[in-house]
């Protein structure tokens, strides 16, 4: 089992409540153009189909029941469960232009449009005709699809993933990480930061220490204000500006003396010992 496949299983995409699923993968550039952030799209009514009742998978051989390609058979290449859509290879296609510029109209390519799950039926392997299926259990307890007309078991196809791997036929090589090694818990939570853990693992000894900083504040209010400012940029040396009330007293000393003070308030300074 590849590590990329394991990480893909663990990754989860957070989508908004009014997100509209389409043909593009969620999170891709094409999907972001269809669902730009900050816009609200109308909800689409989708027929509820439970996972127990769903019986179409990638690689199945089905026959189209409705549309311009009715009666034709094809292979399912994409399944979008959130919209009950299936895409058939080379069927129900329409043409569109790509790479359109000012000087060129682009290239016309065929594009498969999705079909609802009610518009296709599985093909019975006995007579190659469409049939209804139902889920049953074998004597070994395996859940399989069975044709209601012939009673033949329709096995799930071995369809390759996006990276070209067929999970049913994959065998681990010498450079592949086994499932046991990938799921083994080797990380031990610690109170150290990432930098401290890296320094400890590489044998780096930190001998530098932060220098002491002294604050000269007259009032408790100025002391609190200076402390809150120092938390923003503790490594900078600057003169702490007084509060608006202190600035008014410096500008008009007589108003402070009238209140019974002892003169203008001095600005608190941030300095280091010589």
What report would you give on this structure?
The protein has 274 residues and is α+β, with helices and mostly antiparallel strands. It has two domains: 3-35 and 42-183, SH3 type barrels, CATH 2.30.30; 214-271, no CATH class. Helices cover 20% and strands 20% of the residues. The protein is built from seven helices and 13 strands. It has a six-stranded antiparallel β-sheet with strand order 6-3-2-1-7-8, with no helix packed on it. A hairpin with a 5-residue loop joins strand 10 (143-147) and strand 11 (153-154). It is elongated, with a radius of gyration of 35 Å. The two termini are 63 Å apart. Mean pLDDT is 78; it is low at 233-240 and 252-274.
Quick gist of this model?
Residues 24-44, 241-274 are annotated as: Disordered. The chain is of the alpha+beta class and 274 residues long.
Total count of helical runs of at least 4 residues: 7
Q: Looking at the structure, what is the overall shape?
A: elongated
* DSSP, total strands: 13
Q: Strand order within the widest sheet?
A: 6-3-2-1-7-8
CATH class of the largest domain: Mainly Beta
- Kindly identify the CATH topology of the largest domain: SH3 type barrels
Largest sheet: 6 strands, antiparallel
**How many domains is the backbone divided into?**
2
The CATH architecture assignment of the largest domain turns out to be Roll
Domain KOW: 55-82
Biased composition (Basic and acidic residues): 246-261
Keywords: Mitochondrion, Ribonucleoprotein, Ribosomal protein, Transit peptide
Region (Disordered): 24-44, 241-274
């Amino acid at each position: 089992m590849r590590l990329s496949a394991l990480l893909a299983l663990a990754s989860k995409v957070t989508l908004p409540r009014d997100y509209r699923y389409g043909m593009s993968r969620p999170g891709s550039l094409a999907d972001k153009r269809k669902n730009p952030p900050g816009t609200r799209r109308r909800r689409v009514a989708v027929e509820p189909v439970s996972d127990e009742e769903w019986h179409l998978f990638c690689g199945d051989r089905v026959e189209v029941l409705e549309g311009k390609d009715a009666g034709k058979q094809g292979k399912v290449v994409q399944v979008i469960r959130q919209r009950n859509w299936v895409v058939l290879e080379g069927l129900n296609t329409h043409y569109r232009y790509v790479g359109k510029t000012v000087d060129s109209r682009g290239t016309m390519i065929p594009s498969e449009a999705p079909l609802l799950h009610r518009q296709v039926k599985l093909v019975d392997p006995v007579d190659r005709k469409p049939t209804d299926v139902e889920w049953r259990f074998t004597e070994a307890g395996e859940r399989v699809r069975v044709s209601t007309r012939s009673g033949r078991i329709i096995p799930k196809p071995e369809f390759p993933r996006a990276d070209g791997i067929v999970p049913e036929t994959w065998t681990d090589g010498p450079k592949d990480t086994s499932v046991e090694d990938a799921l083994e818990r080797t990380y031990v939570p610690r109170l150290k930061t990432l930098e401290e853990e890296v320094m400890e693992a590489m044998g780096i000894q930190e001998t530098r220490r932060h220098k002491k900083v002294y604050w000269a504040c007259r009032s408790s209010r100025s002391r609190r204000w200076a402390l809150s400012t120092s938390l923003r940029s503790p490594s900078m040396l600057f003169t702490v500006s007084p509060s608006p009330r202190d600035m008014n007293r410096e500008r008009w000393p007589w108003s402070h003396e009238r209140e019974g003070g002892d003169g203008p308030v001095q600005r608190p300074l941030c300095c280091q010992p010589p």
